[in-house]
Design goal:
Helices cover 33% and strands 10% of the residues. The chain is α+β, with helices and mostly antiparallel strands and 103 residues long. It has a two-stranded antiparallel ribbon with strand order 1-2.
Amino acid sequence: KNKILHTSLDDIKEKEGNIEALVLPNDDEEQKTADKTKLALESLLQNKIMKAKPTTLANANDNRKEEPTYIRYTPNPNAPGSNEATKERVIRMVEAQIDPMEP
């Protein structure tokens, strides 16, 4: 399969080829081929660059970050571990960060 099998001496002997197929390309054909090659190489290079860049989160393009919210909290004095010196606490609530490596 997919092999050329030469069974006679005539198959091995040199044959006359098509002269038109061996002619060098003119300047226009050469430029077209160079442009196609350049575009193909740029495409491959861009793909490699995009694959090498770290992935970004969907919200990373959004420059608006939500400001933290501050909550005033009064702890239960009967709770275990409560400190009587602290009568009121201020808690800063921020959005949890998303791990980019998490599936």
